[in-house]
Amino acid sequence: MGRINKGNLRTPTSEEAREMQKKAVEKRKENQKEKVLMSEIYSDFIAEHKEELEESLRKVAMRGDASTVSLISELRKGTEGDKTEITAKVATTEMSREELYNFVFGEK
Questions:
Q1: Which end of the chain is more exposed for a tag (fewer CB within 10 A), N or C?
Q2: What is the pTM of this model?
Protein backbone atom coordinates (compact mmCIF):
# COMPACT_ATOMS: atom_id res chain seq x y z
CA MET A 1 0.00 0.00 0.00
CA GLY A 2 1.24 3.50 -0.82
CA ARG A 3 2.11 6.30 1.51
CA ILE A 4 -0.40 8.90 2.59
CA ASN A 5 0.14 12.32 1.08
CA LYS A 6 -0.55 14.67 4.00
CA GLY A 7 -1.01 17.55 1.56
CA ASN A 8 -4.28 15.92 0.44
CA LEU A 9 -5.61 15.82 4.01
CA ARG A 10 -5.70 19.55 4.62
CA THR A 11 -8.94 21.48 5.11
CA PRO A 12 -9.73 23.75 2.18
CA THR A 13 -9.94 27.48 2.72
CA SER A 14 -13.39 29.05 2.54
CA GLU A 15 -12.57 30.38 -0.92
CA GLU A 16 -11.50 26.91 -2.11
CA ALA A 17 -14.61 25.38 -0.55
CA ARG A 18 -16.85 27.88 -2.35
CA GLU A 19 -15.09 27.13 -5.63
CA MET A 20 -15.51 23.37 -5.14
CA GLN A 21 -19.18 23.82 -4.26
CA LYS A 22 -19.71 26.01 -7.33
CA LYS A 23 -18.15 23.33 -9.56
CA ALA A 24 -20.32 20.66 -7.93
CA VAL A 25 -23.50 22.67 -8.56
CA GLU A 26 -22.52 23.18 -12.21
CA LYS A 27 -21.81 19.46 -12.61
CA ARG A 28 -25.19 18.52 -11.04
CA LYS A 29 -26.98 20.89 -13.43
CA GLU A 30 -25.09 19.40 -16.37
CA ASN A 31 -25.96 15.86 -15.27
CA GLN A 32 -29.63 16.78 -14.84
CA LYS A 33 -29.77 18.29 -18.33
CA GLU A 34 -28.20 15.12 -19.72
CA LYS A 35 -30.79 12.93 -17.95
CA VAL A 36 -33.65 15.05 -19.31
CA LEU A 37 -32.18 14.88 -22.82
CA MET A 38 -31.80 11.09 -22.65
CA SER A 39 -35.38 10.77 -21.40
CA GLU A 40 -36.61 12.85 -24.35
CA ILE A 41 -34.55 10.77 -26.79
CA TYR A 42 -35.97 7.52 -25.38
CA SER A 43 -39.53 8.87 -25.45
CA ASP A 44 -39.20 10.07 -29.05
CA PHE A 45 -37.70 6.76 -30.15
CA ILE A 46 -40.45 4.78 -28.43
CA ALA A 47 -43.14 6.98 -29.99
CA GLU A 48 -41.66 6.56 -33.48
CA HIS A 49 -41.16 2.78 -33.25
CA LYS A 50 -44.10 1.75 -31.10
CA GLU A 51 -45.30 -1.26 -33.14
CA GLU A 52 -41.81 -2.73 -33.60
CA LEU A 53 -41.04 -2.28 -29.91
CA GLU A 54 -44.30 -3.90 -28.82
CA GLU A 55 -43.55 -6.97 -30.93
CA SER A 56 -39.96 -7.13 -29.64
CA LEU A 57 -41.14 -6.74 -26.06
CA ARG A 58 -43.61 -9.59 -26.50
CA LYS A 59 -40.87 -11.87 -27.84
CA VAL A 60 -38.42 -10.96 -25.07
CA ALA A 61 -41.08 -11.19 -22.33
CA MET A 62 -42.15 -14.63 -23.49
CA ARG A 63 -38.56 -15.87 -23.09
CA GLY A 64 -38.73 -15.01 -19.38
CA ASP A 65 -34.96 -14.91 -18.88
CA ALA A 66 -32.48 -12.29 -17.68
CA SER A 67 -32.81 -10.34 -20.94
CA THR A 68 -36.48 -9.72 -20.09
CA VAL A 69 -35.60 -8.11 -16.79
CA SER A 70 -32.73 -6.15 -18.31
CA LEU A 71 -34.85 -4.76 -21.15
CA ILE A 72 -37.70 -3.69 -18.89
CA SER A 73 -35.28 -2.12 -16.42
CA GLU A 74 -33.49 -0.20 -19.16
CA LEU A 75 -36.72 1.12 -20.62
CA ARG A 76 -37.93 2.25 -17.21
CA LYS A 77 -34.67 3.99 -16.42
CA GLY A 78 -34.63 5.71 -19.78
CA THR A 79 -38.16 7.01 -19.63
CA GLU A 80 -38.80 7.54 -15.92
CA GLY A 81 -35.34 7.98 -14.51
CA ASP A 82 -33.46 5.69 -12.18
CA LYS A 83 -36.01 5.53 -9.38
CA THR A 84 -37.44 2.54 -7.61
CA GLU A 85 -41.14 2.15 -6.96
CA ILE A 86 -42.35 -0.50 -4.57
CA THR A 87 -45.73 -1.99 -5.34
CA ALA A 88 -47.86 -4.64 -3.73
CA LYS A 89 -47.76 -6.81 -6.86
CA VAL A 90 -45.04 -9.45 -6.82
CA ALA A 91 -44.00 -11.78 -9.60
CA THR A 92 -43.13 -15.31 -8.57
CA THR A 93 -40.92 -17.94 -10.12
CA GLU A 94 -43.93 -20.25 -10.38
CA MET A 95 -45.60 -17.98 -12.96
CA SER A 96 -45.82 -19.22 -16.52
CA ARG A 97 -44.35 -17.06 -19.24
CA GLU A 98 -47.80 -15.86 -20.25
CA GLU A 99 -48.67 -15.00 -16.63
CA LEU A 100 -45.39 -13.10 -16.31
CA TYR A 101 -46.10 -11.19 -19.51
CA ASN A 102 -49.59 -10.28 -18.28
CA PHE A 103 -48.14 -9.29 -14.91
CA VAL A 104 -45.63 -6.91 -16.52
CA PHE A 105 -47.65 -5.52 -19.44
CA GLY A 106 -51.27 -6.15 -18.43
CA GLU A 107 -53.76 -8.40 -20.19
CA LYS A 108 -53.39 -8.93 -23.92
A1: N
A2: 0.45
